[in-house]
Amino acid sequence: MTIPLEQVDLDADARVSPPWQTVVWNDPVNLMTYVTHVFREYFGYSPDRAESLMLAVHHVGHAVVAEGAREQMELHVQAMHDYGLWATVRQGDG
Amino acid sequence: MTPRIVVLELAQLEAAHLSDLLVQFADLIRASAPEAPLEDPAVARLVPDAYRDDPEAASEFRGLTQADLLDRRRADAETVLASLQQDGVTLRPHELHESSALEAMTVRLDPGQTAAWLRTLTALRLVLAARLGIAQEDDRDPEDPRFGVYDWLGFRLEGLLQAMED
Number of folded domains in chain A? Predict the structure, then answer.
């Protein structure tokens, strides 16, 4: 089986650089129920996962809600801003 | 499958005051420069920096997304405003008859309108919170009636989320 060159490059790239992250930050305005709703609706997370991410945002101050390619994380952050959540993109620690 | 309809009941006076807020909000958004960094911290909160430690990347992201996001806020506000009209007329607090002000009106929202309501109530709270200097969840000044408006928006948002779950 031949593996297309592009795919090899992508895999190698994924190994050397840690994935990017979508981080949602706590703010004093957004309701806990609303944040959970957004995580369920947008990311399609289960009620339990959405709630535990919301609680992490609330108690820890922020939570990584998604990881992957930078462009994808930027789309997520734009979507979070559209919902009124405070979100940022950052590179993971690896 | 028929789309899920959320039914909301509110007094005409509430609808009139919310309509007033929405008109002010849409004006505020319209007056903002679509691509430049925003001077008004209340509007800026609607389009936060996407990168904390990389001003260049944050600025590039802003250039690509800010105008669209602000446009969506204005369009959402107009959707909510339209859903509050009675016989095609936007209610105004000072135009309401005393007898009808507390009468309930029923608003029926399809999924698209419901989503616009959620985003708009949230955006109004974010803008008000910036104006009121709310830095902690329980920051309140009992002398300032705007906190009452802020809490009312939260109450309605919570109610809408609850209605979607039912």
Answer: 1
